[in-house]
Amino acid sequence: PWATTQPKESLELLRTQFATFNPKSVTSAPFFPDDYDPENGKLCKAALAFHQPIELFDAAAKRKFIEELRTATTLYFTGGSQNRILKVYEEDREIATAIREFRERGGLYVGTSAGTAAVPKMMMTGKLVELANGTDMAVVANGLGFLPPGVFVDQHFIQRGRFNRLRNLVLQDRSYIGIGISEKTAAIIGEGGRLEVIGDSQVVLYFYDLSDPTGPLTEVWLSRGAHFDLNTRTLIKPSAIKVKR
Predict the structure, then answer these.
(1) Which residues does 143 contact at the CB level (< 8 Å), separation at least 6?
(2) Element (H or E) spanning 244, and its range?
(3) What is the per-residue pLDDT across 83-113, written as a single tens digit (0 to 9) for each?
């Protein structure tokens, strides 16, 4: 729940939603301390007073969470601010190591909104830079690193009209690929780089054909049931509209 400023409310809502699938258990990572604001970089009072390194969580609560990760099957990150997620990942090496080990043993990572944005090696921070043509491009920073370098992810994509900020990012380098995920929709990405779309809306991809060194940027809209190979940049199963730009 690190992305949200309302962790208790978020946790209760998720428990209700997850109950549909009859999970063995739904438990939470420890919450941020009330007097620490990771979004603005403010230290908790104890750290300021004694000039100690920041300890975000109670030691016992953190140990319990790390133990639970060793047997968990799914790790779910809520919406909010992806920058808060990365604050934990960068400042708490024990938790970061536990999450990496969870992924290495095949644990399923799921994220909504900020939890989606945090997944790539380089994530969108939510900040924008205006280009000379008057359109915006996303500002990126270190992410969780669960996708290959050069794969960027944006969320609330169609609903919030975020086409330019992702498209302009991909235009910077022909090796980049952008994945724009809309609301009520998921992009399931397997270990082999195969992407499958489920849900009610669409996933929009921006990429270059690497076999054509001078070809234009390609835009693909993937609907429910579509499969796409991110490694070869080819459509495996239809339900897509391709647009050359």
Answers:
(1) 82, 86, 117, 118, 119, 120, 121, 122, 123
(2) strand 240-244
(3) 999 988 888 899 999 999 999 999 999 999 9
